[in-house]
Write the structure tokens for this entry.
Amino acid sequence: MRVLVVTFGFEGMSAEELAAVSEELAPQFAAIPGCLEKTWLLDRGARRCGGVYKFADEASLRAYQGSELWAGVEANAAFSDFSVAVYEVMESATAITGGLSSEALAG
């Protein structure tokens, strides 16, 4: 399993407006092939937002990064100062601390 952590600044809208737009877009993100889960992030004070994505494998993660959905987020004029990091999940330790395995997330 791979985890993608993306954060970025937002401007030109309130946190409430951002939340409303995010809810509208959530079904598109739920349909990303190979994406097992996305957690939406918001730091009102710092005016930053983003997401933590869990992907079944590296290929699915890279396909998302090459998608129109990804490109649309990056091209949005309201977003800036992107931070993108990819991590491998340490499955055994994660299971001990109550995290879900890729099999459990897949259903």
